[in-house]
Amino acid sequence: MTISAKNFRELRLERMRRDFGTHNALKDISLTIKRGEFIALLGPSGCGKSTALNCLAGLLPLTGGSIWVDETRIDHLKPEDRGFGMVFQNYALFPHMSLRKNIGFGLRMQNKPKDVIDAKVEEALSLVRLSTQGSKLPGQISGGQQQRVAIARAIVVEPPLVLMDEPLSNLDAKLRLEMRAEIRRIHNMIGCSTIYVTHDQDEALSLADRIVVLRDGEVRQVGTPQELYARPAHADVAEFMGYRNILKAEAESEVNGMLNMRLGAARLSGSAVEAMSGRDVVAALRPEDLTPSKDGPITASVISAEYRGRDFYGLARTEDGMELWFRSEIAVRPGEDLRLGAPADRVLVYPTRAA
Amino acid sequence: MTTTMQSIPLSPPAEPDRISLSQRLARRGLDVTTLLLVPALVFVLALFVYPALYGLWLSLHPMKANGVFGFGNYLSFFSNPYIYGTILTTLELAVPVTLINILLSVPIALRVRHMRKQRLLTTILIIPITLGTVLTAQGMLNFYGPLGWFNRTLMVLHVIDSPVRLVHNFTGVFLSQIVSGFPFCFMLILSYVSGIDPSLEQAGAMLGAGPTSRFRHIILPLLGAGLAITFCLAFVQAFSVFPSAVLVGAPSGPTRVIAIAAFHAAYEQYDYSMGSAIAIIMGLAQIIVVAIVMKASTALYRGPAAGGKG
């Protein structure tokens, strides 16, 4: 008897839509999720990612579109009839039930025989490494342990799909890293599909097979972590993926996708992500790619710098008042003048979005 | 930086008997702020403890025995069925009223919790409390009386041929107690229901529990202790029924509740001593019921009704 997800091929969201009054929280979200995939819904707060998850769970009705599991339409079903697992941000463990009772709740609701329930609960407890704690109440264990119980409770019923709503946001940094690995291990072991909502790009990058970037209720980009990291499709996705320097620039000439730009007084080359139409562009640049060099095109003076173990990260300001986040392997001090530069293939150039 | 470590002599740990009295008191949680308790304490002593003890003293010095210490009042209470029967009459009224109010409140509170116009509804429900029992009784006399709207409408519709007796009997007091007791029960239960984290019910739904199972396995156990408290408070309120028993009841017969017996003894027969004895018995009867309910509720879960540390 092992815990393994029920069979299905894919979950399809077709133009899923949710309005709150006149506010469009989700605008025509379409997405196909294959069995066994780990999908991260990534976006800043208020982008609609939790709304999307609640719509999938059935906790919020859709105002348009449909949800399909293979050939079955499920968006009219109540949450209890969908059979998905969910891990809540605040864990939502039943405070009056022991951990065993909590984990066994879903199986009891399915009227499984008692010996089956007991065996599965023990298996789930050992899967989340809490075998010795089963008779405690949720209030008697730590946050990290509560989180593991919440995961065990969601997966023990072998749902085809597990929904996770920022499950690690209440944990401290060290525990968060541990639980991240744990979640991925459990996902691989039971072979379910997981949809994981987070605002933390590191979490999304390290956990997901594919990342869906949401912004203002719209899907901005869907791709593997590598694709998103190396080539964000939009400037705002780039900003979210760690491109901390988002700089207004003026395009001067283009050769084979390489673009020469004027950045205030400085000239910089970058690679265009999509075809440019006007002269106004936005250059996106990670702090780690902007480093001091003898022939760096940008002159700036250091405002602040902090030591991060192997190198320094700092903020510098050009004469035009442009602020730049940079990295340096040698020590820099506030007030010091630097020449900063970046390789052209690391400078991504986007057209300015019409406001 | 210079170090001054060597210049500091290593002092021995302070001996316990050197600690001042104020420090020792502070360790037990007593300090100057404790004095803030004094006004409240004086208040409670003067307005509750002293009158209660005085009542007890009075009751133990029966007027019939010319104020000599004795249990005469208590003996005569329990030897006269017309008087001791009032306990049963009051229980017959108070227990069903309390239970009905709680049974009505729980489902309504569960609905109202998710409503947007919650404040409007709660305001409407509070009105019976603010009006007081006398006005409610007056309204009931007009509405449910033999010539009231209720009976007249039913007669016009030919549902009944002669007026139904709904006031000046047990039913009248019963209805009045429900009208005035319901808002109290409802508000208390609503606050307990609102204290249950909604994500718990959502978690139940995600695990396949339908509305009935969610209520049975999640809401009810978390509400249990709150229901017990509500029962006790509402019961005590219903048990001390007096105005409605007189105004819409039959105070000499079917709704002769214990408060009426006490009033009758003290202010119609001018036997304060007997009145006090009845009041003390009334208090004991309430304490016994409350104690039974609280004892029974110790088995219930009484921790926080939230799902995690979030």
TrEMBL record, chain A:
Q: Which GO terms describe its cellular component?
A: ATP-binding cassette (ABC) transporter complex, substrate-binding subunit-containing
Q: Which Pfam families match?
A: ABC_tran (PF00005), TOBE_2 (PF08402)
PROSITE patterns named in the record: ABC_TRANSPORTER_1, ABC_TRANSPORTER_2
Q: Which domain of life is it from?
A: Bacteria
State the UniProt keywords alphabetically.
Answer: ATP-binding, Cell membrane, Membrane, Nucleotide-binding, Translocase, Transport
ABC transporter domain segment(s): 11-241
An example Gene Ontology molecular-function term: ATP binding
Note the Gene3D superfamilies from the entry.
Answer: 2.40.50.100, P-loop containing nucleotide triphosphate hydrolases
- Fetch the InterPro entries from UniProt: AAA+_ATPase, ABC_transporter-like_ATP-bd, ABC_transporter-like_CS, ABC_transpr_MalK/UgpC-like, Mo/tungstate-bd_C_term_dom, P-loop_NTPase, Transp-assoc_OB_typ2
- PANTHER family linked to this entry: MALTODEXTRIN IMPORT ATP-BINDING PROTEIN MSMX, TREHALOSE IMPORT ATP-BINDING PROTEIN SUGC
Q: Write out the similarity annotation.
A: Belongs to the ABC transporter superfamily.
Protein known as? ABC transporter
Q: Which organism is it from?
A: Acidocella aminolytica 101 = DSM 11237
From TrEMBL, chain B:
Provide the GO biological process annotations. Answer: transmembrane transport
Q: Where in the cell is it found?
A: Cell membrane
Coiled-coil features, chain-numbered ranges: none
Superkingdom assignment: Bacteria
**Pfam families noted in UniProt:** BPD_transp_1 (PF00528)
Q: Which family does it belong to?
A: Belongs to the binding-protein-dependent transport system permease family. CysTW subfamily.
Descriptive protein name = ABC transporter
